[in-house]
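re: the backbone from monday

yeah here it is again, tokenized this time
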């Protein structure tokens, strides 16, 4: 891998992966609409870019061999904001990938594409999607876009339905959805380097005790999670209990299922 592009590099996961992706390519090109600071060394190129700006995205993608695409709105927001960053933005990324010969994308999808399933249900990656908001819809569209660009143009993508990737689980729901940074890093490595994946959808969750997702599709990547949220159980269960009628206790997407609509 000569040049790897990381979008969303100023974000929560981007700041972590900016360090951890360094061994995966000779040059890491980092990008965001938010400030990124100076290059961290000769291995790094810094290119600020608004994903909704088509010409800028084409300049950004030119010369790259693969893309780890984290950039975009990462929470529930009014549709117009999601449209610019996540829908037009992703289209710009794939069109630029097609034009400039990029063969592999790792797409940060989300558990919110299946957020309206109950926490009592166990899903694999082939389950019918049930997005829990505009954000989840944009990720669902993103997975369809990835499939289309493989079928039509042969660009391979691993769409990772990330659960909750933070230093530690913040609440009871995240005991099921938590993905450690180490497991995420190993998953991205396999998603970049495993041959002939086509468009593959996998769940991004650590080996947590109460998982909701049958992640057998991830075996194709030779990835199995090494970490577990269990080490945080006592701390999380010291929090006040959540009512059984609370969306955080009912739905896989938790509170996202009850956000919006906006502007009424
Ligand atoms: P974040 O919100 O911290 O980072 C997203 C980055 O995208 C930000 O730095 C932001 O400035 C940038 N961005 C937003 N609009 C942009 C635009 N128009 N042009 C260029 N850059 C833009 O989110 P986080 O947690 O780092 O997540 C990274 C990715 O992973 C996101 O796509 C998110 O949807 C996805 N994800 C994250 C999960 C998590 O638990 N952290 C769970 C599921 C999915
Ligand atoms: C996501 O998709 C969000 O980007 C992240 O901020 C968390 O809210 C996560 O899902 C989650 O469901 O915990």
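seq for it, each position gets an aa:
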């Amino acid at each position: 891998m000569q040049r790897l592009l990381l979008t969303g590099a100023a974000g929560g996961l981007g700041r972590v992966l900016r360090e951890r992706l360094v061994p995966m390519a000779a040059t890491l090109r980092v990008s965001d609409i938010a400030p990124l600071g100076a290059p961290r060394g000769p291995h790094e190129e810094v290119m600020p870019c608004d994903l909704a700006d088509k010409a800028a995205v084409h300049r950004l993608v030119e010369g790259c061999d693969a893309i780890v695409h984290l950039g975009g709105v990462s929470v529930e927001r009014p549709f117009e904001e999601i449209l610019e960053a996540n829908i037009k933005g992703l289209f710009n990324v794939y069109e630029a990938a097609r034009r400039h010969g990029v063969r592999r994308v790792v797409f940060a999808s989300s558990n919110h594409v299946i957020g309206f399933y109950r926490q009592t249900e166990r899903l694999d990656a082939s389950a019918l999607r049930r997005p829990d908001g505009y954000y989840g819809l944009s990720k669902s569209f993103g997975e369809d876009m990835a499939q289309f660009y493989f079928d039509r143009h042969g660009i391979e993508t691993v769409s990772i339905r990330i659960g909750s990737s933070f230093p530690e689980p913040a609440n009871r729901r995240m005991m099921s959805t938590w993905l450690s940074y180490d497991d995420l890093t190993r998953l991205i490595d396999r998603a970049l380097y495993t041959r002939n994946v086509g468009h593959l959808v996998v769940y991004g969750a650590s080996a947590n005790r109460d998982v909701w997702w049958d992640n057998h599709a991830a075996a194709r990547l030779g990835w199995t999670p090494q970490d577990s949220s269990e080490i945080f159980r006592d701390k999380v269960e010291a929090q006040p209990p959540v009512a059984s009628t609370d969306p955080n206790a009912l739905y896989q997407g938790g509170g996202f299922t009850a956000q919006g609509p906006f502007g009424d």
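The two ends are 49 Å apart (CA to CA). The chain is about 35% helix and 15% strand.
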